[in-house]
Design goal:
The complex is a heterodimer of chains A (450) and B (289). Chain A has two domains: 144 residues, no CATH class; 207 residues, no CATH class. In chain A, helix 6 packs antiparallel against helix 7 and helix 11 runs antiparallel to helix 12. Chain A is an all-alpha fold and 450 residues long. Chain A contains 17 helices and two strands. The radius of gyration of chain A is 30 Å and the shape is globular. Chain A starts with a helix and ends with a helix. Chain B has one domain. Chain B is built from twelve helices and no strands. The chains are: A mainly alpha (450), B mainly alpha (289). Chains A and B meet through helix 11, helix 12, strand 2, helix 14 and helix 16 of A and helix 3, helix 4, helix 5, helix 6 and helix 10 of B.
């Protein structure tokens, strides 16, 4: 695989960033000079161990699949603090993965990791760590059997939801965020198998943007907005590019015509579900605070171009496009292009124009004219205005009315005649007949045009 | 590289001219949409001039007293959305389209308008927003399905010029009709009640400003409908472009008013029928090609 090594390296880097930003590990570090509760201390150690073991699994994965599987299950045990992963039925799954890494074993891997990650007790950063490990491990398998891998991921998720995870609304959101990168990676593999370079590029871009925005959200709770499906934000870009990558397969290959459409709808639906649940949980779009808003804006503007440049590096075509090309075009994979950073530029200019004019804004004080303390002359002027309003001519004669009434009467007559005519026809449901005739007419027009 | 700077300046000038034309046209469209229908049932309507006066007063108030942050973002997004959807070039720099017209993707602009509207009026319209989002997604997917490699509304325009009478036009018209039936934008009076009852905005001036922003959202939605209904008229140059804009606005207003008079809430099921029809046309065009 061309980009496997850099991709795994990217996953490792993200894991390290998560390790640095995880709240529990920050608590652990703080415990060096300040006492913390024992529970938090223990959880911090668990998280630290889990992250390290997960990173080891990612490093080892290339050679030894069995060891990688063992390490990943260990990672789950640590990340959940021993309450998430049930090793009794995990052991045969790990053995299966070790024996048949490309057969039944992959299904077992999906089952272990997805079941564990949907657990309510897991924090969002440890869930993302599990997702990173899952992506790194299933990557080889997805590259070879794209269709089967995607179907397995969706099936296992559906089973997990059916088996009781649907009860808390939050786990639906977690599954939305976990299944989407797997599907996108599957699209990368499928487009590469079909020989569609643009589609593979776009899908990989979407994967990178998705994972990195999830990482930002896991580290910093204020960045939750970034994942919403609101247009200029990265969450929307992921959905849009993923959809167009799927549609690229639809339009260029014969076998994926319907499956690509279904995939596009599924990706959009996952994004919408995630966005809705985000809004439902805690989304405060524009709080006050210059630092927070500025950081959000900077992240939202810079993340797509950075991910684009990284994608070009991973695909080995860094010298094909200059880096500043990402500042004015985001290719969708099937010929569609979005000029998002230019849009951001226009948005910032207009916003500054509307919200920060040359005068200070004062929302806190009342801006209305206080009628109690008007001066005498002002009152007199107001009275004159009132008088003018009272004596103003409100009636106005429009000759249009007569015409309109006549036309209405005529239309009523025509409608009555039409009803009488329809009454004579042997029809029980005129509505259905109308739609049938309409459909037939459209088909006739289509036939004439072709 | 030496053509980059002049092109950029021309594009900027072009966008400013577009904005001027749009701002001249918006009060008229608002009058047609909100006040003119009362003429047809035989009542007196507010004069057209009043609409212009209100609009000028709004911009004057924005200049005098800058908007709060959230309102400012929404207004900027709506103005950008209108610029994107207008999609004509006034100065005619070669055959290139203007900056913003390249962004005219139905899903992108539709989501923009929907999210602005959800921010302004967030209560109890989840089903409507959801169905509108769903139809926008299907619109995008079906357009790509009908003609592989189509890039937004401008792409539809170019493909229709290259091959007139293709199934792309039928797909787009069906999607426009379905969108006109959904109509997720909140009513003016509902917004007013919400602002007063919930004490969201305390000051009269801010409430008035927010009303105007909502009406701008309505205009954006009308223009989206018109664009999808007559995609041939999207990317024209010069005076023809302005005429095309007028005709598209007219088509959007006609669709919205038609839906209003026919009682569109009764026709929820025909939405599914229209989308099915669009899918049929897209597939027919795809397999005929």
């Amino acid at each position: 695989m061309l980009f496997h090594e850099p991709f795994a390296f990217f996953l490792l880097v993200l894991l390290c960033l998560l390790l640095c930003g995880d709240a529990d590990i920050r608590t652990l570090i703080r415990s060096l000079w300040r006492p913390v509760p024992v529970e938090l201390y223990r959880r911090g150690w668990c998280h630290l161990l889990g992250f390290v073991v997960g990173g080891l699994a990612l490093i080892i994965e290339h050679g030894e699949s069995t060891a990688a599987a063992c390490l990943s299950s260990l990672c789950l045990v640590f990340l959940g603090g021993g309450r998430v992963f049930n090793p009794i039925w995990g052991v045969p799954a790990v053995v299966l993965y070790g024996l048949f890494p490309f057969g039944v074993g992959s299904l077992a891997l999906f089952a272990i990791l997805l079941w564990g990650a949907g657990h309510r007790g897991l924090s969002s950063s440890s869930r993302l760590a599990v997702l990173l490990v899952l992506l790194g491990l299933s990557h080889n398998f997805l590259m070879q059997h794209a269709m089967r891998g995607m179907a397995e991921a969706v099936g296992v998720t559906a089973l997990c939801l059916l088996a009781g995870r649907w009860r808390d609304g939050g786990s639906l959101l977690h599954y939305c965020t976990m299944v989407r990168p797997i599907l996108l990676l599957g699209i990368v593999a499928a487009s590469r198998q079909e020989g569609l370079d643009a589609g593979a590029d776009a899908a990989l871009f979407a994967v990178l943007l998705d994972i990195s925005s999830q990482m930002v959200r896991a580290i910093w709770a204020g960045g939750t907005v970034l994942g919403a499906v609101l247009p200029p934000l990265p969450g929307f870009v992921v959905a849009w590019v993923g959809m167009h990558a799927a549609l690229g397969m639809t339009s260029s290959t014969g076998g994926w015509t319907i499956a690509g459409c279904v995939l596009a709808v599924v990706i959009l639906a996952l994004s919408l579900g995630e966005g809705l649940l985000l809004i439902y949980e805690r989304l405060v779009p524009l709080e006050k605070g210059w630092l927070r808003n500025g950081a959000l804006c900077a992240l939202a503007v810079s993340m797509p171009p950075v991910c684009g440049v990284l994608m070009a590096l991973f695909m080995g075509k860094g010298d094909l496009l200059p880096w500043w090309a990402w500042l004015y075009r985001l290719p969708g994979g099937d010929g569609a292009v979005l000029e998002l950073p230019v849009f951001w530029c226009g948005l910032c200019i207009l916003w500054c124009l509307f919200s920060f004019g040359w005068r200070q804004q004062d929302d806190e004080e009342g801006t209305e004219v206080n009628t109690l303390f008007m001066s005498q002359s002002q009152e007199g002027r107001a009275g004159e205005q009132l008088k003018a309003l009272i004596y103003a001519r409100t009636e106005r004669y429009w000759p249009v009315e007569h015409i309109v009434t006549q036309v209405q009467q005529m239309l009523h007559g025509v409608y009555g005649a039409f009803e009488a005519f329809m009454g004579t026809l042997p029809l029980r449901e005129p509505g259905a007949a109308f739609w049938l005739v309409f459909l037939g007419g459209v088909l006739v027009v289509l036939g004439v045009m072709q | 590289m030496n053509l980059l700077i002049p092109n950029f300046v021309y594009g900027l000038l072009d966008n400013i001219c577009q904005l001027g034309v749009l701002l001249l046209m918006v009060p008229m469209v608002l009058w047609l949409k909100e006040d003119a229908p009362s003429l047809f049932v035989g009542r007196i309507s507010a004069p057209l001039w009043g609409s212009y006066q209100r609009f000028v007063a709004f911009w004057w108030s924005v200049i005098r007293m800058p908007l709060p942050r959230g309102d400012g973002v929404v207004l900027a997004l709506v103005v950008l959305g209108l610029l994107t959807l207008s999609g004509f070039t006034l100065l005619g720099v070669g055959s290139e389209a203007s900056f913003t017209a390249m962004l005219a993707d139905p899903l992108f602009v539709g989501c923009l308008l929907l999210s602005c509207s959800a921010w302004v009026f967030p209560v109890g319209r989840l089903a409507r927003y959801g169905s509108a989002f769903f139809i926008l997604c299907l619109t995008e997917i079906l357009l790509v399905l009908a003609e592989p490699g189509v890039n937004g509304l401008l792409g539809v325009h170019h493909l229709l010029l290259a091959a007139p009478g293709s199934s792309l036009a039928g797909t787009s018209i069906c999607c426009a009709l379905a969108l006109a039936i959904t109509n997720p934008m909140p009513d003016k009076y509902m917004v007013a009640d919400y602002l007063v009852d919930q004490h969201v905005v305390l000051f009269r001036m801010r409430r008035d400003q927010r009303q105007v922003i909502v009406s701008l959202l309505h205009v954006g939605w009308l223009l989206l409908l018109g664009d999808l209904f007559l995609p041939v008229l999207v990317g024209l140059n010069g005076i023809a472009g302005v005429l095309g804009l007028v005709i598209r606005f007219g088509a959007g207003v006609a669709l919205a008013l038609g839906g209003q008079f026919m009682g569109r809430h009764r026709y929820g099921r025909s939405m599914a029928l229209l989308m099915g029809l669009a899918a049929l046309m897209a597939l027919a065009g795809r397999f005929a090609a």
